[in-house]
Specification:
257 residues; alpha/beta; Rossmann fold; two-stranded parallel sheet; 8 helices; binds NADP nicotinamide-adenine-dinucleotide phosphate
């Protein structure tokens, strides 16, 4: 890695937004450590990124597992370290109202979105502080600032991640670490709704039915890359991005034809 080359950890890099963001940063010349649990997805991403300007290093990682994060850390440290962390790993499980909430779904969402980000941040903060110009980008959601029926578990997780992000920005300014939050609305990715609907393809398709242009993983990746490519003194605190057809959480325009 050259002295001027930027370097990042991207979690959630096996699919959707994380994968697109990792690829975008590599195409911008970054050294990217791509993390997620599915090794074969990381390998295919590394193969796809082979001809791009930067470099991608796949590191199979589970953000709910401290030992796995420690292995990730030692791999990155041995390779020269990073200046940027993008916490993109996360997701939703279920759409039940609170009256029928499944505790294990809530536990999964909080473990992955909130505590997963916390574990990664806590582990890498000393490295970012030592660098002197660190950046942390947390990918939360509009579900982290607006509640909706059937969304309580995901809301609780994303509100938690949103709160963590706000406090972190205040605490780390003294260490010259900028903290960016990207809050997307409806993004059509292959796995997000499919996983949320527990593998029911028809219910997953219904999430996007009639919405002519939802956001794509590449749309969100472009915004994340823009934010972390800016000169370091510029902190885009909170970037809310939605498709035009989703003017608000409650107002999603579905074309009838
Ligand atoms: N799609 C949307 O509408 C939308 C809107 C706003 C915000 N978001 C947020 O954007 C992020 C990415 O969503 P997406 O749409 O790209 O969904 P996705 O394709 O399902 O991606 C989720 C990613 O998280 C990783 N992940 C899950 N559990 C993990 C664990 N324990 N350890 C490590 N990685 C883990 C998955 O990798 P492995 O399974 O391989 O570990 C995968 O790479 C999530 O935080 C999501 O909440 C999505």
């Amino acid at each position: 890695m050259s002295d001027s080359q930027r370097s990042a950890l991207v979690t959630g890099a096996t699919s959707g937004i994380g994968r697109a963001t990792a690829k975008k940063l590599v195409s911008d010349g970054w050294m990217v450590f791509a993390a997620g649990r599915r090794q074969e997805h990381l390998e295919s991403l590394a193969a796809e990124s082979g001809q791009l300007a930067g470099k991608l290093v796949p590191v199979a990682t589970d953000v709910t597992d401290e030992a796995s994060i420690h292995t990730l850390f030692t791999t990155i440290e041995a390779a020269g370290g990073i200046d940027t962390v993008l916490n993109i790993a996360g997701g939703a499980l279920g759409t039940e109202p609170i009256a029928e909430a499944k505790l294990e779904d809530w536990q999964w969402m909080i473990e992955t979105n909130v505590l997963g980000s916390l574990r990664i941040i806590r582990k890498f903060l000393p490295m970012l502080r030592a660098h002197g110009e660190g950046t942390i980008l947390n990918l939360t959601s509009t579900a982290g600032v607006v509640t909706y029926e059937g969304g309580a578990g995901y809301n609780a997780a994303k509100y938690g991640q949103h709160a963590l992000t706000g406090a972190l920005r205040l605490e780390e300014a003294e260490h010259n670490i900028r903290v960016v939050e990207v809050l997307p609305g409806l993004v059509k990715t292959e796995e997000f709704a499919y996983n949320r609907m527990r593998g029911d393809e028809s219910k997953a398709a219904d999430v996007y039915a009639g919405v002519s242009k939802p956001l794509t993983a590449d749309d969100v990746a472009d915004v994340c890359a823009y934010a972390v490519n800016l000169p370091h003194h510029i902190n885009l605190d909170e970037i809310v991005m939605r498709p035009v057809k989703q003017a608000a959480q409650h107002k999603l325009i579905r074309d009838t034809e």
